[in-house]
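Appendix B. Chain record.
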Amino acid sequence: MMNAYLALQSLRYKEKDRVLWTDAICINQNDKEEQSQQIQQLGSIYSGTERVIIWLGEATYDINYVIHHRKHLENTGSKHISNAQEILEKQWANTWTLVVRNLGRDQRVKSLYSLLHRSWFERVWVI
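Structure tokens predicted for this chain:
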């Protein structure tokens, strides 16, 4: 719950009310049956929202770096992926490996790797 607490602290408005639906609070995380039922409803919950905010954790150098350089990563990644379109969807990991290899080991890639390994991306309904 500490992550939810940090998110709510960061996202709240100081001067006015703000309504937030937080899955970590609104879904009993200790009840697998409830989680399973709620996960099936997330599509309709999220599609009915005005805006979706994803809390990935507190800002770090890597996160700020990725946000600053996202256009370069997007353009370079798209170029390499479009060159490999014949690869089937289930071979995405191979495509991603190719993209990373072609991008090299610069700070942008390291920062993106750090971002994509945040716990939010491990959730069943994110995949």
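Further analysis of this model is presented in Appendix C.
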